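User: Design a sequence. Structure:
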């Protein structure tokens, strides 16, 4: 069911939908958020099930409606969340929905993720990279410089999860090599059309 339409300088078409009791955030051709059924976040958190009890802080680059926060909270964990989103309209919508959870510890930052990680000095236990332009991962997200800066934002023993959709086989191969050079200890899992890199900082 259609709820409302929104637009911003970054996303000219955004709509909120209600589907099976969940609020979804969609663009003209992509789903950005799906409540507690957001499959990439579920895939990551299932994979990191044994690690989650150790997580005290989470950095999320690319927020949607905050599905990752909601799923972690639903599983009974309450780390400190830092949410970085370049689109102020998306971030505002996310904070509106997340405000229903009064106990969630959220620091929201409206900034370009590339700029944020280049300047960031705080380390987190878990970093989730979930940055898309429609169904495409922007080129900078899979660059050596960006991933290296992301690594600096992760505490020793921490984890990184990188949500990726394959649009070009050549780009996919290049991205795998770049990720492996920054996070040698890693593996890849599949979640529908998404590929999820899970890396560890050792």
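Assistant: Done.
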């Amino acid at each position: 069911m259609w709820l409302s339409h929104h637009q911003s300088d970054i996303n000219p078409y955004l709509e909120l939908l209600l589907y099976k009791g969940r609020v979804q955030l969609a663009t003209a051709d992509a789903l950005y958020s799906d409540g507690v059924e957001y499959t990439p976040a579920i895939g990551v958190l299932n994979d990191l099930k044994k690690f989650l009890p150790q997580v005290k802080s989470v950095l999320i680059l690319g927020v949607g409606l905050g599905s990752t926060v909601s799923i972690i909270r639903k599983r009974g964990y309450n780390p400190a969340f830092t949410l970085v989103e370049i689109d102020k309209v998306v971030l505002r919508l996310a904070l509106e929905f997340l405000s229903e959870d009064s106990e969630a510890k959220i620091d929201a930052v409206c900034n370009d993720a590339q700029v944020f990680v280049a300047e960031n000095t705080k380390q987190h236990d878990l970093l989730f990279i979930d940055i898309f332009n429609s169904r495409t991962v922007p080129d900078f997200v899979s660059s050596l410089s960006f991933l290296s800066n992301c690594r600096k934002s992760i505490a020793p023993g921490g984890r990184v999860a990188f949500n990726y959709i394959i649009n070009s086989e050549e780009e996919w191969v290049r991205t795998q090599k770049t990720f492996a050079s920054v996070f040698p200890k890693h593996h890849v899992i599949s979640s529908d059309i998404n590929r999820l890199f899970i890396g560890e900082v050792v």
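The mean pLDDT is 92. Residues 35-200 form a domain with the Rossmann fold fold (CATH 3.40.50.150).
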